[in-house]
Amino acid sequence: MFGEGEGYLDGMNFLFLTDSIAWQQTQTPKGTCLESVKIAIDTGYRHIDGAFVYFNEHEVGQAIREKIAEGRIKREDIFYCGKLWNTCHPPELVRPTLEKTLKILQLDYVDLYIIELPMAFKPGDAIYPRDENGKFIYHETDLCATWEAMEACKDAGLAKSIGVSNFNRRQLEMILNKPGLKHKPVSNQVECHPYFTQPKLLEFCRQHDIVIVGYSPLGTSRDETVNVSSPPLLKDTVLNAIGKKYNKTAAQIALRFNIQRGVVVIPKSFNPQRIRENFQIFDFSLTEKEMKEIEALNKNVRYVELLM
C-alpha cells in the first residue's frame, strides 16, 4: 500500500477516524461483531482494526464480503489491520500465522500487519501460556528477526504495509537501525488520549514518518488490563465544556483532538448509535486555544496497563 517515504496519513486520508469494533477480549454473542462491522461500513468507516486473538475475525471477514457482494464497497476501499500475537514471534511462525488470519477472513491480503506487542510468549497452542503459579511464560525474542519475517510477508503481497504496536522509542530505534532494513514501520499503535497524549513518542514518530494509531482514544479500558484508579476521561469538565460549544459529546471532542494532531483513532464500540456518533467529527474544528487546553489535560495516565 505504501512505498518507501509514503505516509500512512497521506495515503489513507479518508481513514483518519476508525472504529475498533473488532476488539473484544471476551467473546461477544454470535453475530454481534458481524452486525457492528456492517453498520460501521454503511456509516462510512473504512479502517477496521482486528486481530486473531480478538476471536471474531471470521465475522469481520463475513461482513466485508457481504458489503462487497451488495456493491456497497470494493475490497480496495477497506483498510484492514491484522496483528501478530505474542506466541508467534519466531520468524518461521510469522507467515503461517498471517496466512491463518487470511484464511479466517477469507481475504487475499491485509492492508496492514503489525507486531502486537514487543514481548513474546512461549510458542504453542495456548494464547496466554502460564506456569503452575499462573505467571506468564515468556519467550526470548529477536525483534529484528521477527521484523525481517514481517518484511517477507509484505514482499509476498500478503500485507500491503507493516507496522508495530506498543513499541517505545528504544524498540522502534532497534528496527529503524537494523542492518539491511527493507521496510520501516509505517505505524505504531499505542494508547493515546487527552489524559495520555504521548508527546515525545508522537514527535519521534513524526520525525521518522511513522503514524501513531491511538487505541483507547476515549479513555475506555479493556477487561483484564483496566487501571480502575484512572479518572473517567469522558467526565472531564474541559472536554464537556468544549463539547457544549460545538453541540458535541466529550467523546467527539476527544476524538477530534487526536485527529487534529495527526493521530489515527480507533474507538471500540458495538453500539450502533455510538458507532455513528464517533464518525460525526468532521463538521467542525477545534481552535488552537482549545487544542492547547486539551493538551494541558495530560496526566500521563494509562488505562491499559499491559501488566504481562
Structural class call reads alpha/beta
Number of separate structural domains: 1
Q: Largest beta sheet: what is the strand line-up? A: 1-2-3-4-5-6-7
Distance between the termini: 33 Å
Fraction in helix: 25-40%
Rg over CA atoms: 19 Å
- Main sheet specs: 7 strands, parallel
Active site: 54 (proton donor)
InterPro entries: AKR (IPR020471), AKR1D1 (IPR044483), Aldo/ket_reductase_CS (IPR018170), NAD(P)_OxRdtase_dom_sf (IPR036812), NADP_OxRdtase_dom (IPR023210)
GO molecular function: Delta4-3-oxosteroid 5beta-reductase activity
Site (Lowers pKa of active site Tyr): 83
Q: Summarize this, please?
A:
The chain is an alpha/beta fold and 308 residues long. The protein has helices at residues 8-11, 32-43, 57-69, 91-105, 143-155, 169-176, 199-207, 237-246, 250-260, 272-279, 288-295, and strands spanning 47-49, 79-84, 110-115, 159-165, 187-191, 211-215, 264-266. The chain has a single domain (8-295), classed as NADP-dependent oxidoreductase domain (TIM Barrel).
